[in-house]
């Protein structure tokens, strides 16, 4: 058990700690701060207290595992519909930095059927070594055989760090793998680095819809350290097709009758560009007024080769399917350019797009919260502005 | 069919504001709500019960005040609810939480079908659902946007999962754990009578001992990960409002965006 101790003698009642608590567990009682059961021992208040009245006591656990048995940085090479997801290459780029800091190898691991091409690609993007489990049972993706193959490889070769894309696939089975291994898993990291002293992996991620950031470590008794990372957080590394590496193969220790699910059908989405992969997204909101008016958004998106997004208001009104919803109860996106058209920019919408490189807001209401986070804003009617933008881009792009 | 729904109490982010001076969260007066995705899980549980009979049991792990989300679940028609609460659970990460909820489900007699929201809006991990399924040794179906059919006697379920670039139709054996996305249904509102009845129900609290949890696997002690630092991200600087006639502003914006080289 851990305890958060507030020294009543030292506490000056300044209330500095109260707003620092992300969980609202601190309050004032008789002039001093008190903590209630909502406390999760995150320690946010400890650093804030100007007089050092707050201490966090954690039980020190003896390290009972041999940490030196775990080495190398592994990246899950995810593929779907015959193509490697670009997040896997982004992770190889970031994994290279971690491997250099640790002085170890960067490895990919690939699960699937007929994956020779993917192995070469993993080398081209920086892997020194690739672990492969091939079986017809691994095509298409299913949780059971994927988790089984990954657990088998990880138990046998003991990586120190394992990175997955925070995609539907990665999130589906990383949780299963971590639970089976009883290892830590930190979701949706936006920053990864190695602590120069302890050599442990520091994982930084947003919480509360991106309103706070938390840096997370794994206790040394749990290995490997595992994280999922959203697409587009890290840049694509350079591709070098002349690179070569070592391939290590392991069979799948599972048979079809042990697999509890069957994929019956894949229904391809109607849109050519999906939101997770999109470099540019054009989103429409309440300001569009009708489903038909999404035409304005689609036509503009087409000129830029962009994906079409929407606010919750537009989805709830039935103007566009849920797949397009960006925000807290929809998808989280991180494109290079995000156009918010007729979207006021509620905190929930912002939670899904705030980390875009460039945000362009077009709204009639100069007071709309979206303008507070927009890189560029135009106050105006989207039905006038968007067609003008479209024509101007067409001219510039020669389309 | 015995249906179990796992829910979480979360702060209502509609109320969360940022103090522009200190750049910290203003928590005062922030209401707690049922995690929005869990509302869809409860609704799907109720719909399944209405079709196939049985009971919907709802569990939540949290501090004593989390009982509110259970009252809401009773008010819309869930049959039984349990608050899983113990100081020993505090500081649990997703591994310890999934263990605790799995032990709870076992201690209330298991389930034919478990529904969870795809993720909670405060932590956003989406890891607890798969964690529970793994602990219980049952298959998981995540990001489900439609339950196509259930054959209770054949112990079979067919669902549609929402992927990045389409939908996947998957068949699974039962019991199974399903995590749902928003699109799956439209949650009902509680009736006045339901709210009144729910207010009177004595809600049982299950402690670590009640669910026979291994003390090394719960709370902070059972959590591989720990938060070492919490900070407020740098506020995204308010940008540039392009003012003037649209005939000037539009080409200016296009010029600025072309300079980024992101548009090809």
CATH topology of the largest domain in chain A: Rossmann fold
Quaternary structure classification: heterodimer
Largest sheet of chain B: 9 strands, mixed
Shape of chain B: globular
Q: Uncertain regions of chain B: pLDDT < 50 for 5+ in a row?
A: none
CATH class of chain B: Alpha Beta
Distance between the termini of chain B: 55 Å
CATH superfamily of chain B: HUPs
Count of helical regions of chain B = 6
Average pLDDT reading of chain A: 92
> Which fold name is given in CATH as the topology of chain B?
Rossmann fold
The tally of structural domains of chain A comes to 3
Largest interface comes to: A-B, 118 and 100 residues
Low-confidence stretches of chain A: none
Determine the strand fraction of chain B and express it as a percent band.
Answer: 25-35%
Across the major sheet of chain A, the strand order is: 11-15-10-5-8-9-16
CATH architecture of chain B: 3-Layer(aba) Sandwich
Class by alpha and beta content of chain B? alpha/beta
């Amino acid at each position: 058990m851990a305890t958060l101790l507030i020294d009543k003698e030292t506490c000056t009642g300044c209330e500095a700690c109260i707003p620092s608590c992300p969980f609202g567990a601190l309050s004032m009682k008789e002039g001093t701060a008190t903590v209630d059961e909502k406390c999760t021992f995150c320690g946010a208040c400890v650093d804030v207290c100007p007089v050092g009245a707050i201490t966090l006591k954690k039980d020190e656990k003896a390290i009972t595992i041999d940490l030196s048995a775990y080495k190398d940085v592994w990246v899950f090479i995810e593929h779907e519909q015959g193509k490697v997801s670009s997040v896997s290459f982004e992770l190889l780029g970031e994994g290279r930095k971690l491997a250099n800091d640790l002085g170890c190898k960067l490895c990919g691991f690939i699960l699937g059927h007929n994956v020779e091409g993917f192995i070469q690609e993993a080398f081209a993007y920086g892997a020194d070594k690739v672990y492969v489990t091939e079986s017809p049972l691994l095509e298409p993706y299913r949780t059971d055989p994927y988790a089984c193959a990954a657990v088998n490889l990880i138990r046998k070769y003991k990586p120190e760090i394992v990175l997955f894309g925070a995609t539907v696939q990665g999130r589906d089975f990383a949780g299963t793998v971590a639970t089976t291994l009883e290892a830590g898993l930190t979701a949706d990291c936006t920053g990864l680095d190695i602590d120069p002293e302890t050599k442990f992996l520091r994982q930084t991620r947003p919480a509360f819809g991106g309103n706070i950031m938390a840096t997370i470590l794994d206790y040394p008794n749990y290995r490997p350290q595992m994280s999922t990372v959203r697409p587009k957080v890290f840049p694509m590394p350079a591709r070098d097709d002349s690179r070569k590496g070592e391939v290590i193969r392991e069979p799948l220790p599972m048979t079809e009758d042990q697999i509890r699910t069957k994929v019956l059908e894949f229904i391809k989405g109607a849109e050519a560009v999906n939101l997770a992969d999109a470099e540019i997204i054009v989103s429409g909101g309440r300001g569009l007024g009708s489903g038909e008016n999404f035409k304005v958004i689609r036509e503009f998106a087409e000129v830029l080769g962009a994906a079409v997004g929407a606010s919750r208001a537009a989805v709830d009104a039935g103007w566009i399917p849920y797949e397009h919803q960006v925000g807290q109860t929809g998808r989280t996106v991180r494109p290079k350019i995000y156009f918010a058209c007729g979207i006021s920019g509620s905190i929930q919408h912002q939670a899904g797009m705030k980390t875009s490189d460039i945000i362009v807001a077009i709204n009639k209401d100069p007071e709309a919260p979206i303008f507070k986070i927009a890189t560029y804003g135009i106050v105006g009617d989207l039905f006038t502005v968007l067609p003008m933008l479209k024509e101007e881009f067409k001219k510039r792009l020669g389309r | 069919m015995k249906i179990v729904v796992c829910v979480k109490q979360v702060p209502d982010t509609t109320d969360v504001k940022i103090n522009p001076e200190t750049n910290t969260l203003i928590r005062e007066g922030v209401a707690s709500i049922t995690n929005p995705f869990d509302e869809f899980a409860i609704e799907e549980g109720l719909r399944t019960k209405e079709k196939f009979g049985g009971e919907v049991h709802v569990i939540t792990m949290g501090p004593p005040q989390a009982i509110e989300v259970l009252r809401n679940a009773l008010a819309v028609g869930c049959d039984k609810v349990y608050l899983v609460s113990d100081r020993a659970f505090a500081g649990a990460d997703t591994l310890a939480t999934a263990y605790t909820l799995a032990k709870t489900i076992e201690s209330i007699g298991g389930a034919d079908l478990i529904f969870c929201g795809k993720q909670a809006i405060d932590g956003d991990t989406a890891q607890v659902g798969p964690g529970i399924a793994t602990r219980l040794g049952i298959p998981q179906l995540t990001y489900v946007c439609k339950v196509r059919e259930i054959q209770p006697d054949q112990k079979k379920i067919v669902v549609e999962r929402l992927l990045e670039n389409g939908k996947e139709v998957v068949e699974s054996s039962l019991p199974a754990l399903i995590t749902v996305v928003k699109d799956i249904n439209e949650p009902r509102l509680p009736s006045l009578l339901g709210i009144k009845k729910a207010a009177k129900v004595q809600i049982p609290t299950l402690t670590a001992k009640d669910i026979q949890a291994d003390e090394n696997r719960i709370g902070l002690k059972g959590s591989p990960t720990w938060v070492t630092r919490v900070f407020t991200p740098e506020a995204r600087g308010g940008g540039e409002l392009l003012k003037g006639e649209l005939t000037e502003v539009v080409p200016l914006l296009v010029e600025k965006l072309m300079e980024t080289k992101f548009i090809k």
